[in-house]
Every structure is written in structure tokens, then in C-alpha cells.
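hi! just following up on the protien thing from before. the input was this:
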Amino acid sequence: MNKTVSVLGSTGSIGTQALEVCEKHGLKVAALAAHSSVDMLEAQARKFKPSVVCIYNEDKYTELRGRLADTGIRVLCGMEGLCEIAAMQETDIVLNSVVGMVGLLPTLTAINAGKDIALANKETLVAGGELVMSLAAEKGVKIYPVDSEHSAIFQCLQGNKREQLSKVILTASGGPFFGNTYDELRSVTKEQALHHPNWDMGNKITIDSATLMNKGLEFIEAKWLFDLEPEQIEIVVHRQSVVHSAVEYNDYSVIAQLGVPDMKIPIQYALLYPNRVECPTGRLSLTDYGSLTFEKPDIETFKCLSAAIEAIKRGGAYPCLVNSANEEAVKAFLGDEIDFIQIGEIVSAVLDTFEPSQITSYEDVMKADTAARAYVRERIGKKG
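and the predicted 3d structure came back as:
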């Protein structure tokens, strides 16, 4: 329990719960980083007393530095600050829970510095999966998944031979609109889309869950994390979010990981692996649930999901392109520029717009990212 942790995205849902885990088990917090929440980051800094904090929004730097002037805590800002924190010598494990493409470079920086990663930033593997996994293998760095689904798969693999795995079963809540027709999705409001049935998450991830893009991104992540072919990943809609995912072995035995829908369980497993200790969450009572249901996803209605699956089948830059297009489309939806249904239309259109290209460097990722965002902005502008 003497690990030292740096938390990127400390004021978000994952970050705050990670700090609860750190507090309960006495993990030392070396550094904290947040996007723009000065009030919350200041409070966390005063409570956990890290040696350094970073505010990504550079406009907030002066204010935060002034507020923490009496503490002796060093204050950084921007991408440079995130990367400095990711590579800190005193850190044993970096929890990356920032949202979006911002998370990729700090992950690569931490791996280069030999730091293990507790990964909650989907875009790291969606956009740069091959780069990240090959570098981690080269540096001997462990990547522990924090997403409940990937943590479940990771847990189900313990004590078994990886080569005996047949497929993974990735569960999905289905979001608030599961069962709706495509026409019914046309009238979805922002307020409705931001209401998730089981999980309390940030706005971007909640919208991704409503469009099922979240599950598409997790499909891509699973391919890289567990060295799978797309055909070895099955998505199953499980509305209760009790079975977090499962693994089928070549004898057709299926091992699943179950628990209450609380992110502190996978966060704690990633930070304390291989130790299992009491977690600040509730116990699962199967009799309280009574029954668990499993259904096939509607990939025709939820176009983001089908686009993400097609993207990883094509490979190259396509996963990055659909991810960046989705980020830009979700931003436009939250800003009342487009309708809910247009998110999936835009993400799907990227597959038919861009020619195949390869990702061999961080610069390739950023080039694809910039191109996809420019395409979305141009498309929205023309429609406006």
C-alpha cells in the first residue's frame, strides 16, 4: 500500500473517486492535474498535499498559483505541465482520467519514463493503440484498465492462460435510449441524453453512452488491451450493469466479473493490483436484482457503434478519425449546434470521406485528429 500516485483529471468523476480510494488505503498522492476547476483543484491540493499540481487551462494558471502561494505546492499549466507530472520520478503509477485526445501525449510520456498506467482515458488507445501498446512492451510498463468493462476482462483473465481465450463479452447498459427506433431518436433533447440510467459520469462520456459510441470506443480499446481480433469481441446489452464483462475460453467456459455499478471497484483494482482489499462501495446482492437480462445491440439504429467497429476492422487512422469526429460532434450537440441523431451521421460519414492512412507516430495521430475535426466543423458550418 506504499504506492505513490499521480492523478490526471483529478476533479472529474474518476479522479475524485480515485482520491477516495487513495485516502482510504493511504496511497500517497504525488501530483494532481485538472482541466479548469480552480476551486476543486485547490481544495484537493490542500487536502492531499501533492508536491505539484497542473491546471490544463492556461488562463486559470495565475489564479491557481495565487491561491496556493501559501502551500509551497508547485503549480504548472497546459500540456507541458501534464507531461511533466506524467513523468515525475517519485510517481509509481499514473492514473490518466482526462477526457479526450488530450490524454494521449501524457500517456506516452509516462510510458517513456517507465511509469505504470491506470488507464481511464479511452482516446489513448482508440487513437494511438498500436503506438501505446508497442511502447509499453518496449519499456516493460504495465497498463491497468480502469473502465469497468476492461477491468472485468482483466480480472477474468487472472490465473488463466491467455492463449486459451476464445473471445470476450463486452457488456453495455444500452444507455437511456435502448429500444428506441431511429425516428424516435430524432426528438431526443440534450437533457434526456445527459440522463444515464446507471452511471454518474461527465457530460461527454454520458452523451457517448447515449449514442453507444462509448461502447464502440471500448470495443477498440479491448482489441489493443487484450491483443484481440475484432471477431473475438462480442457486445451484449445488459441493462442492469451488474455483469461488467466476461471471458469465454476455448472449452466454452465463460467467466464473468460482477459487482454493483460503482467505479471505485475497478479504480481500486488498477491502483492496488494484485491486492484485493475492502473497497469504499456497497456489496452486490443478486437477490435484490432478482433477474439479469442480456440482449443484442441495435447497430443499425446506433450508428456510432457500427462506425467504431468498422473503423477498427479497417485499422490505420480510421479509429482516430471516428473518435475525433465524435468529440467534435458531441461538442456541437452540447452547444446546441446539431441534433442528437446527427452525431452518428457525422461519425459514420468520416469512414466514407477519408482515404486509408497509417499511424506510425504521435504526429500521425494529431494530423488525423486535426483533419477529422476540420471536416466536422466544415460540415456543420455548411448545414448551418
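The chain has a mean pLDDT of 95.
The longest strand covers residues 165-172.
cheers
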